[in-house]
Amino acid sequence: MSLVTVMKVSLNFFERQIFNQIGLQVNPGDRIGLVGRNGSGKTTLLRIIKGEIALETGKVRIAKKSRIGYLPQDIHEAVSGTLLQSLIESIPGRADLENRLKEVEHTLKADPDKQNQTKSGEKIAAIHQDLNRLDLEFPRHEAEKILIGLGFETADFIRPVASLSGGWKMRAALATLLYQKPDLLLLDEPTNHLDIPSVRWLVEFLQNFKGAMILVSHDREFLNKQVNRIVSFETEGMRSYKGNYDFYLKAREEEVRSIEARAKNQEQKIRDAKRFIERFRSKATKARQAQSKLKLVEKMELIETFKKEKTIHFSFPEVVRSGKEVVFIEGVSKRFGKNILYDDLNLRALRGERIAIIGPNGCGKTTLLKVVAGEIEADRGRISFGHKVSVSYFAQHHSDLLNPRKTVVEEVYQVVPNASIGFVRNVCGAFLFSGSDVDKTIGVLSGGERARVSLAKLLVNPGNFMLMDEPTNHLDIESSETLIEALKGYTGTLLFVSHNQSFVNRLATKIWDIRGQGIVEYQGRLDEYYERLLKTDSTSGQKEGDISNAREPGSLMVRREDGNHPNKKKGDRKREKREKAEKRQLIYETLKPIQDRLEDLEEKISDLETRQGEVEKILADPDIFGDKERSVPLLTEYKDIREELDKLLFKWEKDQDRLESAKMKLEG
């Protein structure tokens, strides 16, 4: 049975048609990626399914008892309470049960009738059973695990949600949805407010998610790993393709090529038939045949080729060649209040490198870009540039740097006042501003359109050292792909921040990872870096978060040579024997404390579970609720046991992970 069925839905915004008689069926297990240009209706379709937009024609049928969770691109609803508690209170059905429990408990206290008290007691026992079932289905430690995965720290659990910044509120909203385990997840650009570590965690979490999902994302790699079906908004309407995004691109290309070939073949047949008709229609012997061909042509249903949709297209011009060393970051330190972002950074970028700055939100990625760009000053140290270096800076909030009163063409023209207006209009056209669009003021443009204006300004006058902060924000997946290809051909040096894994993986030749008030530098791709990081942790015994201020390229790579060489000297063999003994001792000393803690936790968990079973048996007797002196303390104890069990299970899970990780590191 389908979870959601969209039937013959049409929708117009003012005079613009968004949907015309579209249909969609979402089944359990479907993982659908919505793709199409900005403004094609991806977000609108999600909101229609969620019931936020009234339909002009058509209807949406939702399966009974199906739960739908929706993450919009921006949230405006105020959430009360602390972070962890807001997740616990969001458990489906919990609030209703707790309200019913309060009502029945009030009735129990107010009604002296013994028979009524027994009935109330039975209701209370049933409600507690339901609450217990919910606690088993939605354990507290699962909520904590999700919050930590999305970048929160345990100290944040008691923070009021209202005190969080916009980006962290979005993470809290995402955590709530993931914890609720809906039957259908609607995710609109879920990675927008995440950092690379959180995105990597989310990739794995969603791959294990059992429900159905409809996803909008401009991150090609993220999309490819999550979906088994693509629904695309094409010029001819909404289309569906099995497979991930890469498969869709190939299938669409083959489909277009096939239809164009068939249309071309048909055109040739029509031309041949018309020539035959013109040549022989006046000849008596061929007249009937000519007439037959004429009827055939008239009845022929013309094959329509797909109208090609306009996409942004550009490449960066050749830039002035800089010196080999482009920028020097020497002894740079920066803090905000008591928060030290980095201390005594010493780095350099070389000509032609494409460097990605990564790290958790709040670690100082944007700040470092701003320090290099000269937008803000470092507390200590200095930034210096090499020979013939010219800097271009694409800010994260680039739209704030645009003049809302200027037109598109005026905003771009001010960067190159000596260029012809025709040249500027052509550049604007490459970014889909053609005709009267170039005369629109910046203030009326959408976020995606403003991003295109900022890119156009960068294109007409690029420096040979480009700094970019989240350049794919507000771009659709096609525009992001175009930008990636353009930057691959850029001949200057690139230093950038992006949460888009596909963007980082396909562009970066070097990684700067901000950690522990320093930076780990790695020569290579993002995926390779994380693989090396795991290997380094296993060989060095370092915890992932402990690396700081390793500045040399390749400093993460700890070389380990095999010890069984036939030409080893006796001293080497003795040393190897000693090293193996030391390693065994290290394994014992490292694993023993964790194993002891696990045994202690398992004993406590076993004792609590035994007592929980005893209390449940007592509470299963409805007569107990007639005796308040016995029932109230038992209910309190039962609640305390469940909370303590959740805490112990969470600790056990973390120690179990530590044990497995330590084994891999020490024995690997």
From TrEMBL:
SUPFAM superfamilies reported for this sequence: P-loop containing nucleoside triphosphate hydrolases
Stretch list, region Disordered: 537-582
Domain of life: Bacteria
Membrane spanning residue stretches: none
One Pfam family per UniProt: ABC_tran_CTD
Keywords for the protein's UniProt record, in alphabetical order: ATP-binding, Coiled coil, Nucleotide-binding, Repeat
GO molecular function: ATP binding; ATP hydrolysis activity; DNA binding
Domain ABC transporter: 1-261, 327-542
Coiled coil (UniProt feature): 249-283, 591-618
Compositionally biased residues, Basic residues: 566-577
Protein name per UniProt: ABC-F family ATP-binding cassette domain-containing protein
Organism: Candidatus Desulfacyla euxinica
